[in-house]
Amino acid sequence: MAAAAAGGGDGDRDRAGTAKGSRRLRLASLGVLVLQNASLVLSIRYVRTRPGERFLPSTAVVLAEAMKGTAGLVLLLLQHRGSVRQTALALQDAVLGHVGDTLRLAVPSLIYTFQNNLQYVAISNLPAATFQVTYQLKILTTAVFSVLLLGTSLSRTQWVSLALLFLGVALVQTDQLQPSPPSPSPAPGPPQNQLVGLAAVVTSCLSSGFAGVYFERLLKSTGGSIWLRNVQLGAVGTVVALLAMLLAEGSSVAALGFFYGYNAAVWAVVVNQAAGGLLVAVVVRYADNILKGFATALAVVASTAASVQLFGFRPRAPFLAGTAMVLLAVYLYGRPARDQAHAAQPGAPARGHGGDKFPSKDKSF
Question: What are the CA-CA distances from residue 330 to residues 223, 293, 298 (Å)?
Answer without folding.
Answer: 29, 6, 11
